[in-house]
Amino acid sequence: MSESNIINPENLVYDKTSVMTDRVLHYCPGCGHGTAHRMLAEAIDDLGIQGDTIGVAPVGCSVLAYYYFDVDMQQAAHGRAPAVATGIKRTMPEKYVFTYQGDGDLAAIGTAETIHACNRGENILIVFINNGIYGMTGGQMAPTTLEGMKSSTSPRGRDIQSMGNPLKITELVAQLPGTYYVTRHSVQKPANARKAKRALKKALEYQKENKGTCLVEIVANCPSGWKMTPAQSNQWMEENMFPFYPLGDIKVPSE
Amino acid sequence: MKELRLMKGNEALAEAAIRAGADAYFGYPITPQSEVIEYLMRENPADRTGMQVLQAESEVAAINMVYGAAGCGKKAMTSSSSPGISLKMEGISYIAGAELPCVVVNVVRAGPGLGTIQPSQSDYFQAVKGGGHGDYKMIVLAPATVQESVDYVRLGFELAFKYRNPVMILSDGIIGQMMEKVELFEQHPRSTEEPEWATVGKKPGKDSVIVTSLQLQSEEQEKVNLKLQAKYREMEKNEVRYETHQCEDAEYLFVAFGSCARITRKAMEMARKKGIKAGLIRPQTLYPFPVKAIHKLAKQVKGIMTVEMNAGQMVEDVRLAARGEAPVEFFGRFGGMIPSPDEIFNAFEQKMIGG
Ligand SMILES: Cc1ncc(C[n+]2csc(CCOP(=O)(O)OP(=O)(O)O)c2C)c(N)n1
Ligand code: SF4
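Predict the joint structure of the above. Result:
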């Protein structure tokens, strides 16, 4: 096959989804946010719901997510995305509504909004990026930071006695009758990313049926915050994050 | 069809929201304004107009639900009382920054802190000077009657959409709790329009809509600030509202707003009976403030006294407006205490006439 042949449409093996814009991502090299964005965008694309989707961006590294998803989006105050999404969904019930939030946003400052949106069973999708750290503000401890893990506000490692335990908020909201589908994934390898996309797609499909809140957690790396190379951070994630935050379904529809 | 009813101030606000064609109300209970959400839940406007009502988990959540609905171009309202309004301030700042329309009602009680559930006007500064962070303004309407509470809900939505800006109705525990005769305006249909700035789903061939208050570059943020400031100057030009009583020949001027203005009017009438030519100006918009009207009257009178149910807040704006043309004195009761006309008149005699 000649070089000019390769770009012929019939020879395409992969195409960037049109649900992502052409803007250059501002994320650090190797950061999990970019792949997580793409999986969500592809899920929206596959379902053909680009024009019917409204997203909510958080405060955190993904605050500018609205530049990358080519769907209508609102930017919410730190932690308030589930409340903003509630306001959207209650007045636009026929739209697909998602929030995209980091662990500080969702599990610290926004804990009340997260739990109550889930408890009401708001028909929204919550995409939860758990990288165990505050990326945007320069690597401070998050509610999900592992025991002994170093951050700029736990320089000697997280001490459970004085700093509390890492919070498994995903398991927590799975207890609530309002949640319908709660699952944990990752995107560091193609196989993982494909599984994550399938979960996101399923969650959006459930939304059409008004089944209740769906939460898809994506355990992700933060090479900058963790002070590692992208490859090191993925390995560290597999060895340390996955044992504490095991991948897989936490709550699945019972039918 | 217009309709006469005897209604409690808070319930009238709620009914007015339904009739104004509101799409949604989000709130959290707090005395003395819980009747707003109680009335809405009883009335179940979803059946009447399709309006959505939700009791949120907090005032923080409620104002952010308003943000979400307003971002979709919907008419959304929330209400609370002082401690709850403090919690909403971050959200109000975001709404002002993202240029979204909404109506926020504060049925003021006395503070600071948990304070008391009794009526007060001690949130004047918070309402007109910002309250939340950043250089922003919201139009502040101050009803003195249950009737005005009703009319200001409709007017509030009109102004909120005209300027794409939050509007606050600064009521208080007296107006919220008392019953008066009101004329209710006819039911307005809920809007089916989709403003081009609203997130309603990306249209093919058009750019996606983004609702945000974020600008990472200082140059861009300054442009946003300048645009907002230009909008505020427009509001100051077009939206000043006030009422005057016996100001034509006044030698002394009372300034008071809301429920306190009704009591002050009695004191003004007492002065008139004693042959003192007193008048009253009642700002109906606290922002924009009737600066010009007060400046003009200041040139005419020997002295001005503001009467407030706080420790002296609006008096600062009255002094700025008077620009030294007349001495400006203050009388107030606070902590939930309501001044009597006698008290006001005595203070007026002492401070203004010389006692
Ligand atoms: C009310 C408020 N408090 C604090 C901040 C500062 N802040 C910005 S992002 C952030 C943490 C974000 O961390 P996370 O949600 O884990 O997202 P990440 O950046 O790791 O993707 C904080 C504390 C803020 N913007 N607003
Ligand atoms: S700081 Fe961390 S989370 Fe943020 S973009 Fe960089 S790697 Fe990603």
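The pocket of iron/sulfur cluster (ligand 2) is lined by residues A 27-28, 31, 33, 61, 131, 135-136, 222-225 (CB under 6 Å).
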